[in-house]
């Protein structure tokens, strides 16, 4: 089978297997073995199958299918290897530097010539086709279609791999749910704790649906299908965050996640409508001769530069067309040059990005993600690494060709603010999972910032590496919680003696997110991905000093904060002396089914970033890079905005500076953290008192919840209370009065019926009865009497007739 | 005119029928024995039969082209058949009554009173 048949087959199977598992558990869940224990086998088996299928697809792609882009990728990868292999200053690629030098004196028009830097000049290899047309209503086509390129395959393998490990882990973690659960966090009105049956099977049922939705999102070949699975992922997260539904906090958190996501989705729907109304298609790629969104926005005859599609120009110039101007091709080009329709492209881009903001918890919709910690830890691991939050970044990456430079700037600002805000909150948090949650938000900010400053590969690279180490970190924290039954880091300490596997795998995760490395030689995965983001930020800064300055400062500063709070977490949990002996004495290492996934993930957290690997993530991403993306581009609404080519950031001058600055800032964070929590040369209490206002600001999460409460929740509550009063007083009052009127009329009717009609009927009945009763005595049952009566009667009748006849004649 | 002075005609048969009928009625009215009453019934029926046969006499039908001349006889035959059937049923009832009450006194059989 050729790849264009086998890849869709493998991936759609991999996508549908979790759905089958979900259906099976829905139907037979509680009857699957004792307390539904088999449900976990079914779900784990399904996701494992998915992983194996994805892996097969991965291998097919990798060994048989590099195509023309392979060379490009190799060039790029060698850049990467060069940077890390050589010291700064050496082996400067003159042409790149010269190119960059001109860019630094920005403003002048930049001519093509991307080929020299290893940017692709032809569209990336992608298979796209409709699998099933749901409906075709006029121009509106609703189809289930796939779009498979190396990004899809990479995401598939990553998601199913991490999900598989999480399934195994969850088998151990959720063991409590196998028998009746006493929820100590729920107190009933009678003062007792809640007793409820275990929900083991239901947990796995949701996990399966979650995996199915995420894989569907990744394989989706049109934006509508993305939206459908987007919502499915949302509802799954709702189920899973609210898994302990009896806890008020859990159900609130689930609602919050759901509602905040709806806010983002509203923007996404606007983006969708803008795209469909002007382009008439939802498809990403060209399906069956019909032009998809990508090729419309970046047409081949315009050298794959971002072009406002004809449909949008036409839409914007509607007035002129109505006034009689003929929309010929030349006229449309003129309009386009005048900027018609550009705003529509920007709206579409920002709209789509709104959805990403909701899902990926970017500022200002970041408030739901930390609350999502109310779900069981395996869910947090899944939500925070491979599925839900990754979906936003993935979509931003997938939709990248459509984003105008102005949209990218918005993305960059959102990401930059997010990464800094979340990092500052993380340094004061004391709940082990919440530190990680804010860390996720912060890292997602990095990805968005990377994407927003033109680093397509950098942003998505960080998505992949982050998925590995963040799931590792979350599962480690889950293991700690499993052992200590508390989330509060202030009650931990010294746990590395009790649970070495967890402690040291978590250390690997911490080092990976910290970006530990011997600069320019080798490092953990986070080192490569974060460096490439910061390098791109720096490259952006060189040509846009106004915007770039804050990006660079915050992204490098954020790395320091990351180092500080991650090591703070590890030190507080595992290092030093136990703070709470009760907790310490009861702590124990988790079962094998829980820590083996940790070990596997730890290995991957180290190696997944290596760019010189044959299976390198960077190479795969480079193969998927949409053509035209990453080339130099200029803003239209903001004419001074320049996006440098992404490969320029690999020049040693830029990358080297990024690496050095990151290294030292992160080291400073680490040293500070160690000074606080290991050597105790600084007392956290003193510092807290010293910087009380700032501490309070961070501790209260920049008062975002309070702010939203004041701006949105209270007015809405006030308004709804008014509406409710109006409803209760006016509308209900009117209806009650009406009801009373109807009742009184009905009661009169009832009187008439009961006394008049029923009375008449009763009188007749009584008569009939009394007549019948009086006639009863005639029936004596005496035969001879009857005969006599017949005779007498006959004679009497005869005589009567005789007389009457005689009388008449 | 006197019946005894007339030649035998329909009237004579009617008189015999009437006598039989009245006897039957009287028998039914005065007998307390169920079997006696059944006999009375037979008398009543046969009184009627005689009337039918007499009425079908040639002298009465007058050679009507629509009459076979045997109508009365046919009706009598039917009545005889019905009487046989009725007697069988009535005897069955009587026997059952005897089984239940050890008597055939019809005055005791007043269970159908209203």
Shape type of chain A: globular
What gap, in angstroms, lies between the N and C termini of chain A? 120 Å
Helical coverage of chain A, percent range: 55-70%
Q: How much of the sequence of chain A is in beta strands?
A: under 5%
How are helices and strands ordered from N to C of chain B? HHHH
Shape of chain B: elongated
Please bin the fraction of helical residues of chain B.
Answer: 55-70%
Number of strands of chain A: 8
Class inferred from helices and paired strands of chain A = mainly alpha
Q: Based on the structure, what is the oligomeric state of the protein chains? A: heterodimer
Q: Uncertain runs of chain A with pLDDT below 50, 5 residues or more?
A: 70-116
How large is the count of helical segments of chain A? 30
Structure write-up:
- The complex is a heterodimer of chains A (about 800) and B (about 110).
- By secondary structure, chain A is mainly alpha-helical.
- Chain A is about 70% helix and about 5% strand.
- Chain A contains 30 helices and 8 strands.
- In chain A, β5 and β6 form a beta hairpin.
- In chain A, α19 packs antiparallel against α20.
- Chain A starts with a helix and ends with a helix.
- In chain A, about 50% of the residues are buried.
- About 5% of the residues of chain A have low confidence.
- Helices cover about 70% and strands about 0% of the residues of chain B.
- Chain B has about 110 residues and is mainly alpha-helical.
- Chain B starts with 9 loop residues before the first helix and ends in a 13-residue tail after the last helix.
- The model of chain B has no long low-confidence stretch (mean pLDDT about 85).
- Chain B is elongated and about 55 Å long.
- In chain B, α2 runs antiparallel to α4.
- Classes of the chains: A mainly alpha (about 800), B mainly alpha (about 110).
- The interface between A and B is medium-sized, with 13 and 15 residues.
């Amino acid at each position: 089978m050729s790849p264009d048949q086998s890849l869709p087959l493998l991936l759609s199977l991999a996508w549908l297997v979790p759905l089958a598992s979900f259906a099976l558990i829905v139907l037979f869940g509680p009857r699957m073995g004792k307390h539904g224990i088999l449900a976990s086998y079914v779900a784990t088996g399904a996701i494992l199958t998915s992983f194996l299928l994805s892996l097969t697809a991965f291998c097919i792609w990798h060994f048989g299918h590099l195509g023309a882009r392979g060379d490009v990728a190799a060039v790029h990868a060698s850049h990467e290897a060069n940077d890390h292999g050589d010291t700064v200053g050496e082996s400067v690629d003159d042409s790149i530097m010269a190119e960059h030098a001109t860019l630094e004196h920005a403003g002048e028009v930049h001519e093509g010539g991307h080929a020299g830097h290893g940017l692709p000049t032809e569209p990336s290899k992608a298979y796209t086709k409709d699998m099933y047309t749901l409906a075709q209503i006029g121009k509106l086509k609703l189809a289930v279609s796939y779009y498979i390129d190396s990004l899809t395959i990479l995401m598939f393998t990553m998601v199913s791999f991490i999900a598989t490990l999480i399934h195994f882990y969850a088998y151990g973690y959720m063991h409590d749910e196998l028998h009746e659960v006493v929820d100590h966090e729920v107190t009933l009105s009678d003062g007792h704790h809640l007793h409820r049956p275990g929900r083991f099977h239901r947990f796995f049922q949701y996990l399966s649906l979650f995996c199915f939705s995420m894989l569907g999102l990744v394989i989706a070949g049109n934006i509508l299908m993305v939206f459908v699975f987007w919502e499915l992922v949302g509802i799954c997260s709702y189920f899973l965050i609210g898994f302990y539904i009896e806890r008020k906090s859990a159900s609130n958190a689930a609602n919050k996640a759901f509602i905040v996501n709806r806010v983002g989705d509203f923007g996404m729907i606007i983006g969708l409508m803008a795209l469909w109304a002007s382009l008439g298609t939802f498809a990403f790629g060209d399906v069956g001769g019909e032009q998809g969104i990508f090729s419309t926005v970046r047409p081949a005859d315009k050298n794959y530069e971002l072009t406002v599609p004809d449909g949008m120009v036409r839409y914007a110039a509607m007035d002129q067309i109505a006034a009689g101007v003929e929309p010929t091709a030349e006229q449309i080009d003129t309009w386009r040059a005048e900027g018609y329709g550009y705003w529509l492209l920007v709206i579409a881009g920002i709209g789509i990005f709104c959805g990403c903001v909701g899902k990926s918890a970017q500022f200002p919709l970041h408030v739901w993600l930390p609350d999502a910690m109310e779900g069981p830890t395996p869910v947090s691991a899944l939500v925070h690494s491979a599925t839900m939050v990754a979906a936003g970044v993935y979509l931003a990456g997938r939709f990248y060709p459509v984003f105008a430079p102005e949209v990218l700037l918005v993305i960059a600002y959102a990401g930059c603010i997010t990464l800094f805000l979340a990092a500052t909150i993380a340094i004061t948090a004391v709940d082990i999972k919440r530190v990680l949650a804010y860390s996720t938000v912060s890292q997602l900010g990095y990805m968005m910032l990377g994407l927003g400053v033109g680093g397509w590969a950098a942003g998505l690279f960080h998505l992949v590496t982050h998925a590995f180490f963040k799931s590792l970190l979350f599962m480690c924290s889950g293991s700690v919680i499993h052992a200590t039954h508390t989330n509060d880091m202030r009650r931990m300490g010294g746990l590395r003696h009790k649970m070495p596997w967890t402690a040291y795998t978590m250390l690997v995760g911490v080092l990976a997110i910290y970006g530990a490395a011997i600069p320019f030689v080798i490092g953990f995965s986070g080192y490569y991905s974060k460096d490439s983001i910061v390098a791109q930020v720096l490259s952006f800064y060189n040509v846009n000093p106004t915007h770039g300055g804050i990006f660079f400062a915050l992204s490098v500063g954020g790395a320091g904060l990351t180092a500080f709070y991650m090591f703070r977490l590890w030190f507080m949990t595992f290092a030093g002396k136990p703070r709470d002996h009760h907790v310490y004495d009861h702590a124990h290492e988790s079962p094998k089914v829980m820590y083996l996934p940790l070990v596997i993930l730890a290995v991957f957290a180290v190696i997944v970033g290596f760019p010189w690997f044959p299976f390198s993530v960077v190479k795969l991403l480079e193969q998927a890079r949409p053509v035209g993306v990453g080339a130099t581009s200029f803003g239209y609404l903001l004419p001074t905005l320049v996006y440098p080519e992404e490969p320029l950031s690999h020049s040693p001058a830029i990358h080297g500076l990024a690496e050095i600055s990151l290294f030292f800032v992160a080291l400073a964070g680490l040293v500070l953290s160690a000074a606080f929590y290991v050597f105790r040369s600084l007392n956290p209490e003193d510092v807290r008192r010293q910087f009380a206002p700032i501490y309070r600001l961070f501790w209260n999460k920049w008062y975002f919840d309070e702010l939203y409460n004041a701006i949105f929740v209270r007015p809405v509550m006030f308004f709804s209370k008014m509406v409710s009063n109006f409803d209760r007083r006016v509308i209900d009052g009117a209806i009650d009065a009406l009801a009373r009127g109807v009742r009184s009329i009905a009661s009169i009717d009832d009187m008439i019926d009961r006394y008049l009609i029923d009375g008449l009927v009763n009188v007749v009945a009584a008569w009939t009865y009394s007549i019948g009763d009086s006639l009863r005595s005639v029936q004596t049952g005496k035969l001879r009497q009857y005969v006599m009566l017949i005779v007498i009667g006959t004679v009497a009748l005869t005589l009567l007739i005789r007389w009457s006849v005689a009388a008449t004649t | 005119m006197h019946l005894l002075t007339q030649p035998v005609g329909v009237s004579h048969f009617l008189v015999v029928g009437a006598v039989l009928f009245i006897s039957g009625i009287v028998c039914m009215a005065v007998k307390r024995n169920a079997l006696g009453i059944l006999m009375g019934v037979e008398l009543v029926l046969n009184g009627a039969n005689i009337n039918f046969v007499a009425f079908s006499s040639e002298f009465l039908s007058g050679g009507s082209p629509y009459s076979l001349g045997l109508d009365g006889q046919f009706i009598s035959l039917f009545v005889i058949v019905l009487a046989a059937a009725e007697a069988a049923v009535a005897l069955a009832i009587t026997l059952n009554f005897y089984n239940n009450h050890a008597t055939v006194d019809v005055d005791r059989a007043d269970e159908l009173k209203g």
